[in-house]
Amino acid sequence: MKKIAMALASFAALAGAGSAMASEGGSCHFHGNTPASEKVAVDCASQRKASLVSGGKLDKSWEAVKVEKVEQIDGKKGKEWKVSFKNAAVTEADKSTLYVFLSLPGNYIASNFSGK
Q1: How would DSSP label each residue in 16-79?
Q2: Which domain, by its residues, includes 44?
Q3: Phi and psi at residue 17, to the nearest 5°
Q4: Could you tell me if residue 67 is inside a domain?
Q5: Residue 66: inside a domain, yes or no?
Q6: In a domain, 19, yes or no
Q7: Model confidence over 16-28: pLDDT tens digits?
Protein backbone atom coordinates (compact mmCIF):
# COMPACT_ATOMS: atom_id res chain seq x y z
CA MET A 1 0.00 0.00 0.00
CA LYS A 2 2.86 2.33 0.85
CA LYS A 3 4.44 1.71 -2.59
CA ILE A 4 1.18 2.56 -4.36
CA ALA A 5 0.85 5.79 -2.40
CA MET A 6 4.45 6.76 -3.25
CA ALA A 7 3.88 5.93 -6.92
CA LEU A 8 0.71 8.04 -7.03
CA ALA A 9 2.43 10.94 -5.28
CA SER A 10 5.36 10.78 -7.72
CA PHE A 11 3.01 10.64 -10.69
CA ALA A 12 1.01 13.63 -9.40
CA ALA A 13 4.20 15.63 -8.88
CA LEU A 14 5.44 14.87 -12.39
CA ALA A 15 2.07 15.59 -13.98
CA GLY A 16 1.87 19.00 -12.34
CA ALA A 17 5.50 19.93 -12.99
CA GLY A 18 4.96 20.80 -16.65
CA SER A 19 2.21 23.29 -16.01
CA ALA A 20 3.93 24.75 -12.98
CA MET A 21 7.11 25.42 -14.94
CA ALA A 22 5.50 26.61 -18.15
CA SER A 23 5.55 30.35 -18.69
CA GLU A 24 3.95 32.64 -21.21
CA GLY A 25 5.71 32.05 -24.48
CA GLY A 26 6.81 28.61 -23.28
CA SER A 27 5.37 26.94 -26.36
CA CYS A 28 7.92 28.79 -28.50
CA HIS A 29 10.98 26.77 -27.57
CA PHE A 30 12.31 24.66 -30.41
CA HIS A 31 15.17 22.22 -30.82
CA GLY A 32 17.03 21.49 -34.01
CA ASN A 33 17.57 23.60 -37.08
CA THR A 34 14.27 23.16 -38.91
CA PRO A 35 13.14 26.64 -39.97
CA ALA A 36 9.86 27.80 -38.47
CA SER A 37 7.07 28.89 -40.78
CA GLU A 38 6.19 32.56 -41.00
CA LYS A 39 2.99 31.84 -39.03
CA VAL A 40 4.99 30.26 -36.19
CA ALA A 41 7.36 33.26 -36.16
CA VAL A 42 4.40 35.66 -35.96
CA ASP A 43 2.77 33.62 -33.17
CA CYS A 44 5.99 33.43 -31.14
CA ALA A 45 6.77 37.14 -31.61
CA SER A 46 3.20 38.00 -30.58
CA GLN A 47 3.54 35.84 -27.46
CA ARG A 48 6.80 37.62 -26.59
CA LYS A 49 5.14 41.04 -27.07
CA ALA A 50 2.29 39.96 -24.78
CA SER A 51 4.85 38.81 -22.21
CA LEU A 52 6.59 42.20 -22.36
CA VAL A 53 3.25 43.95 -21.80
CA SER A 54 2.24 41.69 -18.90
CA GLY A 55 5.70 42.11 -17.36
CA GLY A 56 5.40 45.90 -17.46
CA LYS A 57 8.20 46.38 -20.01
CA LEU A 58 5.73 47.71 -22.61
CA ASP A 59 2.71 49.96 -22.16
CA LYS A 60 -0.76 48.38 -22.29
CA SER A 61 -1.37 50.16 -25.61
CA TRP A 62 0.83 47.49 -27.22
CA GLU A 63 -1.65 44.70 -26.38
CA ALA A 64 -3.84 45.18 -29.45
CA VAL A 65 -1.00 45.98 -31.88
CA LYS A 66 -0.76 43.48 -34.73
CA VAL A 67 2.30 42.44 -36.72
CA GLU A 68 3.30 44.98 -39.34
CA LYS A 69 6.11 43.12 -41.11
CA VAL A 70 7.83 39.72 -41.02
CA GLU A 71 11.15 39.11 -42.70
CA GLN A 72 14.19 36.88 -42.61
CA ILE A 73 17.45 38.74 -42.09
CA ASP A 74 21.12 37.85 -41.79
CA GLY A 75 21.90 37.93 -38.06
CA LYS A 76 25.14 37.47 -36.17
CA LYS A 77 24.75 33.68 -36.14
CA GLY A 78 22.99 33.20 -39.46
CA LYS A 79 19.42 33.72 -40.66
CA GLU A 80 16.89 35.13 -38.17
CA TRP A 81 13.27 36.20 -38.15
CA LYS A 82 12.67 39.93 -37.63
CA VAL A 83 9.05 40.67 -36.71
CA SER A 84 7.94 44.30 -36.36
CA PHE A 85 4.94 45.81 -34.60
CA LYS A 86 3.98 49.46 -35.20
CA ASN A 87 2.02 51.20 -32.44
CA ALA A 88 0.23 54.32 -33.73
CA ALA A 89 -0.59 55.33 -30.13
CA VAL A 90 3.08 56.01 -29.35
CA THR A 91 4.05 59.60 -30.17
CA GLU A 92 7.83 59.14 -29.96
CA ALA A 93 8.90 58.01 -33.43
CA ASP A 94 11.92 56.10 -32.12
CA LYS A 95 9.69 54.08 -29.75
CA SER A 96 6.71 53.43 -32.04
CA THR A 97 8.04 50.25 -33.69
CA LEU A 98 8.94 47.17 -31.67
CA TYR A 99 11.21 44.60 -33.30
CA VAL A 100 11.26 41.01 -32.07
CA PHE A 101 14.10 38.78 -33.22
CA LEU A 102 13.79 35.01 -33.35
CA SER A 103 16.18 32.31 -34.48
CA LEU A 104 15.21 30.65 -37.75
CA PRO A 105 13.66 27.70 -35.82
CA GLY A 106 11.61 30.25 -33.79
CA ASN A 107 13.44 30.72 -30.48
CA TYR A 108 13.44 34.22 -28.98
CA ILE A 109 16.69 36.16 -29.32
CA ALA A 110 15.91 39.77 -28.43
CA SER A 111 13.51 42.67 -28.81
CA ASN A 112 14.17 46.40 -29.16
CA PHE A 113 13.06 49.62 -30.81
CA SER A 114 16.13 50.06 -33.01
CA GLY A 115 15.66 47.07 -35.29
CA LYS A 116 19.33 46.14 -35.00
Answers
A1: HHHHHH--TTTT----SSPPPPHHHHHHHHHHHHHHHHHTTSS-GGGTTPPEEEEEEEEETTEE
A2: 27-112
A3: -65, -40
A4: yes
A5: yes
A6: no
A7: 433 333 334 457 8
